[in-house]
Each structure stands twice: as C-alpha cells, then as structure tokens.
Amino acid sequence: MDSEIGCLIRFYAGKPHSTSSSERIQLSGMYNVRKGKMQLPVNRWTRRQVILCGTCLIVSSVKDSLTGKMHVLPLIGGKVEEVKKHQHCLAFSSSGPQSQTYYICFDTFTEYLRWLRQVSKVASQRISSVDLSCCSLEHLPANLFYSQDLTHLNLKQNFLRQNPSLPAARGLNELQRFTKLKSLNLSNNHLGDFPLAVCSIPTLAELNVSCNALQAVPAAVGAMHNLQTFLLDGNFLQSLPAELENMHQLSYLGLSFNEFTDIPEVLEKLTAVDKLCMSGNCMETLRLQALRKMPHIKHVDLRLNVIRKLVADEVDFLQHVTQLDLRDNKLGDLDAMIFNNIEVLHCERNQLVTLNICGYFLKALYASSNELVQLDVYPVPNYLSYMDVSRNCLENVPEWVCESRKLEVLDIGHNQICELPARLFCNSSLRKLLAGHNQLASLPERLERTSVEVLDVQHNQLLELPPNLLMKADSLRFLNASANKLETLPPATLSEETNSILQELYLTNNNLTDKCVPLLTGHPHLKILHMAYNRLQSFPASKMAKLEELEEIDISGNKLKAIPTTIMNCRRMHTVIAHSNCIEVFPEVMQLPEIKVCGFIP
C-alpha cells in the first residue's frame, strides 16, 4: 500500500505511525462496487478494493488498483442495508445532509455476513450512546461530534493520543465538548498521561482510565464533583492527590494492580466508598491503624500483594470490616481476632501456620493451600456455612467445627487428618463433606442419621465403610471412596425395599471382589459407577438388569470374562469403559441410543 493510502487510513481511522497498515484493517477485499443511486444507469458496477478500517469504509477510485485517491465513507450514524435485487449485496450509507451510498456485491455468502455484522456494529451507534471500542482509533472521528448530546462513550482498547500528530485530527482534549457525558471508558489506550480534558466534563459520573500506564493523577480531578465510579486499575500509581476528597459522590474507586505500598490517606475522606479495591499492589505491611480511620470501608480486597504482617498499633476492634480478602500474599500467621464482625475471610495461598479468627458473625472461611497446623475460631461460629481448609497440615478436625450448627460445606481434603469425629456427621445442616487425601484408617463405626449429600473420602487408608453408612445417609447422592483398601461395601437396605437416592459411586482402585456386586442393586438410581482396578471376576446379568438408570460405567482393570448382556437395558448409557480385562465376547453396546464412549481394549 503506497504512502497516500496509508495517510488516508491514518487520518480517517486513527492509524498510529508506528504500526503497519494491515494491523488496523478489520476487513478488506476486491469486490464489485457501485456508487450513488441504484436506479441511475450512469452508475455502473466496477471492481474495487474495499477496506473497513476503524469507523470508515474506504473504496479505491482506480479499478483493480491501490493507487490514486481513496474515497472515505464515515459509518457512525449511517446505515447498512440488504439489497434484495442483487445476490450478496449490501448498501452502505453515511449520515448527515451530504450522505453518500455505496453498493457492494460480495463473492460469497460468508463474506456478505461478515461485513454485515462488522459494519452494523459501527453504523448502529446512535446519538446518546456510542461504542467505538476495539476500532483501532488514534484520534476521535469527526462524525462523533455531530451530536453534543452524548451520554455514554466507550473508547476502550484503541490507540488514542492526547494530541494527534496530524493537524486536522481531533484528540482527547476535545472530549470536554461533550457537556452531557455521564459515562466514559478510555481503558487500554496506553495514554501515559491522565487526560485532563475529562476533568472539565461536569456531568461525568463514571470514568474508566484503567491500563493506560498512568504514573500520576492530577489534582484537577477534584473538579469532577458528580463522579461516582472511578477506575484506575492497571497503572503505575503510587499515590493519589488530596483533591480526591472533593468527590463527595464517589462510591467506587478501583486501585488494583498499581504500585501502592500503603493505603492512600485520601480514602479517609471518601466516605461513600465502602470497598477498598487494592489487589495486585506492592504492600508489604497492612497497617490496621489506617483502616481504623476509614469506618465506611466494609470490604477490604488486598489480594496479590506481598503482605507479610499486620501491624495493630494498639488498635481497638475494627468493627466496620465484614469482608477481608488476603489471598496470595506472604503471611506466615494471621491473628484476625481484631476483626470482630468479620463475615467472610479469604486467606488462601499464603504461608500460614496458625490462624485465629473471631467467630461471632463468621459465615465463610477460605484458607486452603497454606501450611496450617493450628486453626482457632472463637467463639463458636454459629453462622458459619462454608469452610475450606484443604491443602494444609492439619492433623485433626477442630472441636468447634462440630459445634457449628449451620455448616453446610466442609472441605478438609489434602491434610494429615487421621480421624473424623462422629459428631460431625450428626450436624443436620452439613450437606457436603470433602475429606479425601488424608490418613483416615476408619470412619465412625456407628452413625446416626446424617444429612450429608456429598461424601468424598478418596485416597485414604480405609479398610471398610461404616456398616450402616448407606442406610443412615438416605440423602447421599455422591460417594467417592476410590484409592482405599476396601474389600466390600455396606448394604443400602436389610430388605428388598430401598430408600437409596445415590446417583454417583466411585470405588476405583480398591480390593473389591464379586461379593460387593449384589449390594449395588440397593441403589437403583445409580447413574455413574466406577469400579476400575479392583478384583472383580464376574458381574451377573441379573444384577446389571436392576441398574437401568446407569449412564456411565468404568469396570476396567479387573478380571472380568464377560460384560453382562443386560447392559443393553440401560438405554441412557453413554460411556462404557472395560479395558484391561479378560473379555472375549462383547455385547453390541454401540447400538445403545446414547452411547458416545466405548473402551474394550484387552
């Protein structure tokens, strides 16, 4: 493409000089083009190069060539219409009193659809709301200024500059002309400097300047008295101007992924802001004294910093903080007793050895992937419903856990726990218990009725399951006891009638023998059954016949000589895996209506 064409594309579509033209072109091709009214015979179809670049349609003026003048059709506020008289034809019209129309016939229906969808997005921009995101703009299109009544303008992910190099181009300093603008998105433009013009827009309520390599925020932002949402995430900020305190209506301030080492003092004055959003900064110490001066802050988000300690400095209880997020930091211990009204605590992926929490109002605790050996919550958390302390070094379940009467989900997997308290199963609220990858040698021998619906005890050292487990756990839908040392299963019933609603049963890699197969019939609603790598030698057809709701079965790695023919009665079966056996004759499982996966390799 020659320099003249490159210049036109730069002028009309915001082409930066440092980037090749092809990077900005969204669509292009050689098509039959006709200009003006369709009914005029003087206007004939001619093969032309057509380019969609930014917000403009660019058509070459010379047949089959990229030399000469380029005709530019602004598309914002224009129209794109289907032309039914010609196959794969679209009419592109600009807006305004000097509107022009180009008719373009595409070679294939695929190209026709691609152009229709892409151009429609640009042309559909209307008076009050305009979305020019990802349009490869380096400056503001002239058509954008046809209306001064814009209220919402999205310019994210472009190449905008404050002062474009071309003299006729409109830069960001022109934004102050939109005196009714309420929402402006300038994120991901690599501005480098804060666009001062936006400070002169009195109606602005939402401003997003995230990811622009900003190193400072000017004092002039204090003039934006109506601003409610201010997004500064993903920059290089280390401080904020004191003038921010004049933003009395500001309710959300995004400061994540910057270079702050402390909480900015000006937040003390922003009393409408209730969430501290400072994840991904450079904080090494959390000074609780700073939080004490911000009683309006309820939610503290300090994920992905490098916090190693909390400094209290004789601070009283921080009663206003209800949610604290300290994920992915460098904490070795955490005493959160000072947060006496805490409801949700996140401290995953630190290096915690000890953790102390106030339990008065605690509802959810997330502390996985640490090195915890001690976990204390006082008083007993009567509102706790979710607790994840997986992937730690706990050797037992804390006593207070059994007394948390509203606990619904407990994940203690990947620890060093040797025993589960019987009282844990008596909790009428407990629905999901995940205790896999521990050192359990047994479960409580005699269980009372339990409400557990999901029980995961895989990868332990269990020799047997409690004899009345499947009779007492009549709400159990999911049981995973894979990778243990089980030789048999407990019965689901002592009579022919059963109340079992078990749907998923995972027993892979145990020592189960043929004796357990008849016990499976006590679970007529089974949908998934995994018994791979056990010691099964036979699976009677009469037993398979009572499992008609099965959808997936894995019995590979046993010593089976045949697959029961009654598997054909399982009309919903979609997966049958039975490799690594001694099977010589296979039923025609591929004839099952839902079958998708079938593995019978010897």
From TrEMBL:
Domain named PH: which ranges?
24-124
Give GO cellular component annotations, separated by semicolons: cytoplasm
InterPro entries recorded: Leu-rich_rpt, Leu-rich_rpt_typical-subtyp, LRR_dom_sf, LRR_domain-containing, PH-like_dom_sf, PH_domain
* Alphabetical UniProt keywords: Leucine-rich repeat, Repeat
- For this entry, the protein name equals PH domain leucine-rich repeat-containing protein phosphatase 1
Species of origin reads Carlito syrichta
Identify the coding gene: LOC103257955
